[in-house]
Write a structure and sequence with these properties.
By secondary structure, the chain is mainly beta. It is built from one helix and eight strands. Strands 6-5-4-7-8 form a five-stranded antiparallel beta sheet. Strands 2-1-3 form a three-stranded antiparallel beta sheet, with helices on one face. It is globular, with a radius of gyration of 15 Å. Bound molecules: zinc ion. Zinc ion binds next to loops.
Length: 126
């Protein structure tokens, strides 16, 4: 049973450096985006519990949202397939990642609040 709103809970955990997602105990799937009910899943909040994911995954797709410098500059958006089997969206530094790269998601504090940031797990010279 999840008491705090799932989105608020996700952001609160993220602010503390943890990645926590609702997990449907009926079909053993993580819900992302973290709002409930998850599409195609149980409509009963009692069927969900909060689980932590470690943030290791692989880049599935990425794009760059062009913004003027006074709006914060270009913003990279990446879809990452986590080892836990859920695909999540994160920010990344434009030019730092390619499809298929191994990444680790970390908590990043942006102007608009805590967000996920994807970083390559292998060094550029390795
Ligand atoms: Zn389900």
């Amino acid at each position: 049973m999840i008491e705090l709103g799932p989105r608020a809970r996700f952001e609160e955990a993220l602010a503390g450096g943890r990645i926590e997602l609702p997990f449907c105990t009926l079909c053993s799937r993580y819900a992302y985006p973290p709002g409930l009910p998850a599409p195609g899943c149980s409509q009963d909040p009692a069927d969900y519990e909060v689980r932590s994911v470690d943030g290791n995954g692989v880049v599935y797709a990425l794009t760059i949202v062009r913004r003027r410098p006074e709006q914060g500059g270009d913003c990279g958006i990446v879809l990452v397939d986590l080892a836990e089997g859920v695909r999540v969206m994160a920010a990344y530094a434009p030019g730092s990642l390619a499809i298929g790269d191994a990444v680790r998601l970390v908590s990043d504090t942006a102007a608009e609040g805590p967000r996920l940031l994807a970083q390559a797990t292998k060094s550029a010279d390795g």
